Amino acid sequence: MRITLNAVILALTLFSCRSGDDNADAYGNFEAVETIVSAEGTGKLLAFGIEEGMTLPADTVVGWIDSTQLSLKKTQVKANIKAVLSKIPEAAPQLAVIREQIAAQKREQLRIQNLVKASAATTKQLDDINAQVAVLEKQYRSLASTLNTQVSGYSSETQPLEAQVLQLNDQLRQSRIVNPVSGTVLTKYAEKGEVVNYGKPLYKIADLSSLLLRAYIGEEQLGQVKIGQQVTVRTDLPEGKYQEWPGTVTWVSAEAEFTPKEIQTKEERTNLVYAIKVKVQNNGSLKIGMPAELKLPKP
User: Could you report the per-residue pLDDT of 226-272, keeping only the tens digit for each?
Assistant: First the structure.
């Protein structure tokens, strides 16, 4: 009798544990927001110090692509800029000479004007000095215009060169491999010493501190689900038990789709369902691709 009673109790226990399957409102698998970090330059990987499973903070330099040729080209362009700027004439000294001549002639002009008033000089002398002052002033304006044109022309020649320097600075910055997000390295696609091209994937990283359960609900359950709603997620434990996790609905699909093949039986795959995502904080036990079930709060 004792053996029979124990068998009955065990059967009831297993049934009660597995009966949770019938009460689940949705099923799905965990996923994470995965970021594939690619090379932004072309060259040999001089340094690449990451390994799969490594946790990296955001904005961390994890490697370098050889940028020797870029540095040499930048040096050459800066030398060209310096050569062009050396051709710019020094306007101030040249204009200062004519200004001094004008000032001297104006002093002479004033002296002759006073002499004419005192009848000690002729009007022809005054006309001559006035003409000389006018000629010098005209020469000053012409030289200033010529010098300004030359300075402007040489400055214009340096503008495309300066743009090249900015472009090279950006390419040099891109030769650094900077980790964009905090997370765990999932897959490594390259090794130190390899020659990589622009756009080549280097590694894949994801933040595993929280995962997203992508589950599917029927149309009759759609009214029970809202973004921001708190729900319960359950994962399998040994002996048919479950571990419960608090979750938050972060997304609900606006369009219906056929049930994914990996979720239900062949007959149930033809049903129209709505995908939802539930964010669950991860203590390290949850893994990408791990199955789970969802329990909605009772209305």
Answer: 999 999 999 999 988 899 999 999 999 988 887 666 555 555 555 78
Rounded distance between C-alpha atoms, residue 140 and residue 180, angstroms: 60
Query: What kind of fold does domain 22-33+207-295 have according to CATH?
Result: Elongation Factor Tu (Ef-tu); domain 3 (2.40.30)
Tell me the one-letter amino acid at 78: K
Cβ(206)–Cβ(35) below 8 Å: yes
Cβ atoms of residues 170 and 163 within 8 Å: no
Whether the model pTM is above 0.90:
no
Q: CA dist 5 to 8, 12, 13, 18, 239, Å?
A: 5, 11, 12, 20, 20
Q: Name the token pair of 257.
A: 């789709």
CA distance 39 to 203: 10
pLDDT over 50 at 183, yes or no? yes
CA distance 67 to 46: 10
The β-bridge relationship of strands 257-258 and 272-281 is antiparallel
Is domain 37-68+178-206 in CATH 2.40.50.100, yes or no? yes
Residue 125 carries which DSSP code?
H
Give a three-class secondary structure readout of 41-84. Answer: CCEEEEEECCCCCCEECCCEEEEEECCHHHHHHHHHHHHHHHHH
- Tell me the C-alpha distance between 236 and 291, whole Å: 8
Q: What are the pLDDT digits (tens) for 55-114?
A: 999 999 999 999 999 999 999 999 999 998 888 777 788 888 888 988 988 898 898 888
C-alpha gyration radius of the chain: 41
Domain boundaries, the chain: 22-33+207-295, 37-68+178-206, 82-174
φ, ψ of residue 21 to 5 degrees: the values are -55, -40
Distance CA 230, CA 43 (A): 49
Asked if 173 and 68 count as a contact pair (C-beta separation under 8 A), the reply is no
